[in-house]
Write a structure and sequence with these properties.
Chain lengths: 549, 183
C-alpha cells in the first residue's frame, strides 16, 4: 500500500510539469514555439534527408524547452498532430510561428547545435549511428548534399560517417557504434529505429531519441540473424531494469511478435511506433491546471447486472489511440472502448488530455497493453512482473480506468493464431490488479477466458480487418452468433485501427437475434453474471507459430 | 432375323450403358485434376489468408483436396482426402476458415465426410460434419461444398455453405498450366 501511494505520488508529480531530462517547472507559462508542416515524401532519394535533419534538429531545439513542433500530412500514421497543435494553442497558450523551409528552421535552431555529422544514404545504418551522435554531440545530421546548408548556418563538421561502414554488416556496424557511443548513451531508453525497409524510412520518433541521448539501431530479433540477435541481447541485458525500448521493429527483418517477445523476456517495455512524432515537444507539457481524468463509466464498482437471454456485443479499439479513428467521423455513434497509451502519462500527457477532453459518452478508456506499455506477459520474468504491473495499476488509477487489456502474440502469426495466456499468467494478473473490474485479451481472436468472483477475463471472439467487406463482417458475426447458441452470448470484438465507425453501425443493423451493443464496463458486469463461456487457458498442445528464444 | 439385328444392338447398348452408369457416376472428369489458383477478384474475400491454391488428385474413388495457403511469409498445406463411395472420418479436417473468428477445430476430433460425383463427374460434392471449438464450448458445423468444373475445363468454382452462415462462400479458381505448376 505504501509503495502504491508512493508510486502514485511520483506519477502525479511527474505529470504536473516537465518530463524527461530536466526538472519540472511549477507553472507552464504562455510561450512561443515554431511549427513546420511536413509533406508525405519519406523517400530516401528525395524527402528523407531533409526530414532526418529537421527531426534531429527538433530533438536539439526541444532539449530545454518546447520550441519546435511538426504537423504531419493527412496520410501520416499518427493523425493527431494537427488537432494536438490546436490543443496546445487553446489550452496551453502556445503561439506557433510557421517555418516553411529547412533554411528557416536552421536559422532559428542552429544555435542549439554544435556542428554537423554526415551520414550516407547509400549505407542506411549510418542514419542511426548519426542520430546517436547527434544526441551525444548536439549535432545536426546532414547528407553530403546538405553540408552547404549546415555550413551556411555556421555549423562545422563533428563527424563524417562516409566510408566508415561501407561493406559492413548491420551487426558489425552496430558493434562498432556500441564500442564508440553506448557508454555515454541513456541506459534507461533505447531507440529501435525500425519500420519500413526499401526506399522509405519514417523516423518520426527520432527527436525523442536525440533529446534523450539514446542509442539508435535497427537490429533484428529474428533467430536467423544470430549475430544481430546476440548484439541486441547485449544491449537489453545492459539496460537498467525497467528500461524502455522506443520505436518499432524492422519490417522484413523480423516480426513484431519476435521483437516484443524478446523485449518482454528481459522485462523491458516497448513504446511504439518509430513514426510517433513530437515526443520531445509533448513531454514538456503537463496536464492543464485542475484537469483530472474522468472516464465515462456506465456502471459502478458495486453495481450488479444480470444478463438477459440475448447477444451482448462490445467493441474495442486498441491500436494506439492516435493511429485509430479518433479523428474520423462517426465516433460516438456506438459504445467503443479505447486503449489509450498509458505511458503517455510520462511523455505525452497533453495528448492524453486531448483524447479525454474530446471523448464522447460512448468513448471508454481502458488500460494496457499487457503492462505499463506493450509487452507479452507469458514471457515477462516472474521477478519483474509484479513491479511492472504495479506501475500499470498506478497509471490506471491516474487515468480512471478499471478494465485492463492484455495481449500476447508471442506464439501468434501476425494477428492470427495463438494469442492465449497460460494459467500462470492469468493467475498473476488477477493477483496484480485486485482493483480491476476485469480483463480482456487478444488482438486477433483468442480463447483465454476466466471468471473469478465478479471479475471476468474475456478474449476477443472476432477481429475486424478494416479491409474486409462489411457484408462479410456481418456474415462472420452472424455466424459466431449461430455457433455460440447459448444465451447470453458475450461477443467481444476488436476493431482494427482504421475501421470506419459508421460502417460498424451498418453492420450492427444487419445482425440477427436479440443483439445489444453495450459499453465494455457494462459488458464485463453482464459477463460476470452468467458464465456461458468456457474457462480456458493456453494449452501446451495449442499450435505455436513462434516458439520463443 | 437379320432385320431385327439393329434393334438388338440398340438394346445391347442400352443395357451396357445402364450397367456402366454407376461406374460413370463414380468417376470424376480427369480435367478436374491439377493445380487451381484462386482469383481474389472473383471470390469471397479471404480473411487472414493471402492466397489459396487447390490441388485436386483423383485416385479411384478417392479424391485428394490439397489446400496450399499463404499468409504473408507463412505457408500452410493441408489435404482432405474424401471418398466418393464411402464416408470417411478426417481428423484435422481443413476448411478455409475465417481466422479472425474465434472458431477452432476440436483437437483430435474427426469430421464425418461424404463425397460424390455429380453432373457426369464435373462436380464433386463434399458434405462434412465439422467438430469445432467456440467460446461457449464444442459445436458442429454442417458444411456443404461443390467443386464445379466449368465449361472449357480451365476454371473451377467452389461453392461452400455452412449450416451456421446465411451467406455462401464462393471461390473462383483458374487452372495452373502443368509446367507452371511444377515450378
Amino acid at each position: 500500500m505504501k509503495r502504491l501511494t508512493f508510486s502514485l505520488a511520483l506519477i502525479l508529480s511527474a505529470t504536473a510539469g516537465l518530463h524527461g531530462a530536466g526538472p519540472a517547472p511549477a507553472v507552464m507559462p504562455a510561450r512561443e514555439a515554431y511549427v513546420m508542416h511536413f509533406n508525405s515524401d519519406w523517400k530516401i532519394v528525395s524527402g528523407l534527408p531533409e526530414k532526418v535533419l529537421l527531426i534531429g534538429l527538433q530533438g536539439l531545439a526541444n532539449r530545454t524547452a518546447p520550441r519546435f513542433y511538426i504537423v504531419h500530412a493527412a496520410d501520416f500514421p499518427w493523425e493527431i498532430t494537427g488537432p494536438l497543435k490546436d490543443f496546445y494553442e487553446r489550452k496551453h497558450g502556445v503561439h506557433f510561428t510557421e517555418l516553411t523551409t529547412a533554411e528557416e528552421a536552421l536559422a532559428q535552431f542552429a544555435q542549439y547545435a554544435k556542428g554537423y555529422v554526415v551520414w550516407d544514404p547509400a549505407v542506411m545504418p549510418t542514419m542511426n549511428v548519426a542520430y546517436t551522435i547527434a544526441g551525444l554531440e548536439d549535432a545536426v545530421m546532414v547528407t553530403p548534399a546538405l553540408i552547404p546548408l549546415a555550413e551556411r548556418h555556421g555549423l562545422k563538421p563533428i563527424d563524417d560517417l562516409r566510408g566508415r561502414y561501407n561493406g559492413k554488416t548491420d551487426a558489425q556496424i552496430y558493434t562498432d557504434a556500441k564500442s564508440r557511443y553506448w557508454a555515454r548513451c541513456s541506459h534507461d531508453k533505447l531507440m529501435l529505429m525500425g519500420g519500413h525497409r526499401g526506399d522509405i524510412r519514417i523516423p518520426g520518433i527520432a527527436d525523442w531519441g536525440v533529446r534523450e541521448k539514446m542509442f539508435f539501431h535497427d537490429l533484428s530479433a529474428n533467430p536467423i540473424h544470430a549475430d544481430e540477435l546476440a548484439l541486441e541481447k547485449q544491449f537489453f541485458s545492459e539496460l537498467n531494469p525497467g528500461g524502455t525500448i522506443f520505436g518499432w521493429h524492422v519490417y522484413g527483418k523480423d516480426t513484431e511478435e519476435q521483437h516484443t517477445t524478446l523485449i518482454s523476456t528481459y522485462g523491458l517495455k516497448m513504446e511504439g511506433l518509430q513514426s510517433l512524432p513530437n515526443l520531445s515537444f509533448n513531454c514538456q507539457f503537463g496536464f492543464t491546471p485542475g484537469f483530472k481524468f474522468t472516464n465515462h463509466h456506465h456502471v459502478t464498482p458495486e453495481q450488479k447486472l444480470t444478463a438477459q437471454a440475448k447477444v451482448y456485443i462490445s467493441f474495442v479499439q486498441s491500436d494506439g489511440i492516435g493511429i485509430g479513428v479518433w479523428t474520423k467521423p462517426g465516433r460516438g455513434r456506438i459504445p467503443l472502448a479505447w486503449g489509450a497509451i498509458m505511458g503517455w502519462v510520462h511523455f505525452s500527457p497533453a495528448a492524453l488530455e486531448y483524447f479525454h477532453e474530446s471523448a464522447t459518452p460512448a468513448d471508454y478508456f481502458i488500460g494496457g497493453l499487457s503492462g505499463p506499455s506493450y509487452m507479452y506477459p507469458n514471457h515477462i520474468p516472474a521477478n519483474r512482473f509484479g513491479l511492472l504491473m504495479q506501475e500499470a495499476s498506478d497509471l490506471m488509477k491516474v487515468l480512471d480506468e478499471t478494465i485492463f487489456e492484455i495481449m500476447d502474440n508471442s506464439a501468434a502469426d501476425g494477428n492470427v493464431g495463438n494469442a492465449d495466456l497460460t494459467k500462470e499468467t492469468v493467475d498473476r494478473y488477477y493477483a496484480a490488479f485486485p482493483d480491476a473490474a476485469g480483463f480482456i485479451n487478444g488482438y486477433g481472436p483468442a480463447r483465454t477466458r476466466d471468471l473469478r468472483g465478479s471479475r471476468p477475463l474475456i478474449s476477443y471472439d472476432y477481429y475486424i480487418d478494416p479491409r474486409r467487406p462489411r457484408e462479410d463482417v456481418t456474415a462472420d458475426m452472424n455466424e459466431l452468433i449461430a455457433l455460440n447458441a447459448k444465451r447470453p452470448y458475450f461477443l467481444l470484438v476488436h476493431v482494427r485501427e482504421s475501421n470506419d465507425v459508421n460502417s460498424l453501425v451498418e453492420v450492427i443493423k444487419q445482425l440477427t437475434g436479440p443483439v445489444e451493443v453495450v459499453p465494455l464496463d457494462t459488458f464485463m458486469k453482464l459477463a460476470a453474471s452468467n458464465q456461458t463461456y468456457v474457462t480456458r487457458y493456453q494449452h501446451p498442445d495449442d499450435p505455436k507459430h513462434f516458439k520463443g528464444y | 432375323m437379320v432385320g431385327n439385328l439393329p434393334m438388338k444392338r440398340t438394346l445391347l447398348k442400352f443395357l451396357l450403358g445402364l450397367a456402366l452408369l454407376p461406374l460413370a457416376a463414380l468417376a470424376g472428369d480427369p480435367a478436374i485434376n491439377g493445380r487451381w489458383r484462386m482469383d481474389p477478384a472473383r471470390s469471397t474475400a479471404l480473411d487472414s489468408w493471402t492466397t489459396m491454391d487447390l490441388v485436386i488428385a483423383t485416385d479411384g474413388s478417392k479424391v485428394g483436396l490439397r489446400h496450399d495457403m499463404t499468409w504473408h511469409a507463412t505457408k500452410v498445406t493441408a489435404t482432405n482426402t474424401v471418398d466418393t463411395v464411402a464416408p470417411v472420418e478426417i481428423v484435422n479436417f481443413f476448411r478455409v476458415d475465417q481466422r479472425h473468428m474465434a472458431v477452432y477445430p476440436q483437437p483430435k476430433e474427426a469430421a464425418h465426410v461424404t463425397a460424390a460425383w455429380l453432373d457426369g463427374g464435373r462436380t464433386l460434392r463434399v458434405e462434412a460434419q465439422v467438430p469445432l471449438e467456440t467460446s461457449q464450448g464444442n459445436a458442429t458445423m454442417r458444411l456443404y461444398e461443390e467443386y464445379r468444373l466449368l465449361e472449357g475445363g480451365n476454371e473451377l468454382l467452389l461453392i461452400e455453405l455452412h449450416s451456421t452462415r446465411s451467406r455462401p462462400l464462393v471461390y473462383h479458381f483458374t487452372k495452373v498450366p502443368e509446367e507452371a505448376a511444377k515450378k
